[in-house]
Structures are given as structure tokens and as C-alpha cells.
Amino acid sequence: xxxxxxxxxxxxxxxxxxxxxxxxxxxxxxxxxxxxxxxxxxxxxxxxxxxxxxxxxxxxxxxxxxxxxxxxxxxxxxxxxxxxxxxxxxxxxxxxxxxxxxxxxxxxxxxxxxxxxxxxxxxxxxxxxxxxxxxxxxxxxxxxxxxxxxxxxxxxxxxxxxxxxxxxxxxxxxxxxxxxxx
Length: 182
Fold this sequence. Notes:
Elements: H1 2-29, H2 34-38, E1 47-49, E2 67-75, E3 81-86, E4 92-98, E5 103-108, H3 109-112, E6 116-122, H4 124-128, E7 143-145, E8 150-158, H5 165-173, E9 176-179
Parallel strand pairs: 6-7
Antiparallel strand pairs: 1-2, 2-8, 3-6, 3-9, 4-5, 4-8
């Protein structure tokens, strides 16, 4: 009886190890991930508005047709990035993803509390090089530390009615992400 119990426990532990290692390793082996799909249509450190999805075609799977979407494919090896995204009337969100699809930061228009979402994206090493200014608070300057030097910034604006979708598309199209000048 104890022999079967030990075999069962060993089987469960082995199954857990295989399951967890597969779940953690699989995103790195995917060849058709979001970054790879957007690579041919997005230049580095520039915002590109994605076309509205239809039933026949969509750049990314599961895109909501009531949202206007823009993407910035960033590369921080050159320097920190400045992101400026205007807020639409209904809802605007900005999400940050690593090269392999791990989300590491997100902000909405409600959290920004302004008419534009402005922030600086940089690595931890780049942040250490910035001098501390006593008169600048975290409310004045939002700094996001990226865990990797490459990744995606997804900017989405809701068009709550079909007639307001054009307004949301203009909002995401006027977003900017560019390397900061020293």
C-alpha cells in the first residue's frame, strides 16, 4: 500500500513539475506571438494605429471592434522613452508588455487624472542615472521601469457608440512615444 502511495505522490510531483515548466517556457518558444505579428507593421519607438478588426481579418486575435488601438514597439537600448497619449471622452488605457508578452504596467485615464497620459519609460539602470530633483514629485513625473529593453506599449480608446469610434481613433493616432533627448 505504501509503495502505491509513493508512486502516486511521485507521479503528482512529476506532473506538477512538467506542467509548471511548460507553462513558464511556452511563451518564449511561441513563433507567432504579438511582438512577432506587429514587427513588420510597426517601426521602433513610434506609435502606429492598428486597423479596425473585422470578422475576416484582425492584426491580433480577440480585438474588440469598439476600441481604437495603437501600438508602440519600444527599444530602450538607445535611451529612455517619453510617452504622451491624449485621453478620449469615454475611456483610455495604456498597457506595457515585455517582448514575451508579460504585462508589467498599466494606467487608465481615470488614474492619470489629466487630459493626457504622460510618462517616462526606462530601465532600472537608466533611472539610476537621472538626478533626483527635490521639487519634482511623483505626481509631476511618472516614471515606469521596464524589466526588459524591448517590448510593446498598447494604447486603447473606447468608442462607446459607432459614431464616436472616429474620435477614439484620432485620440490613439495622436499618441507619441519617442526617445528622450538628454
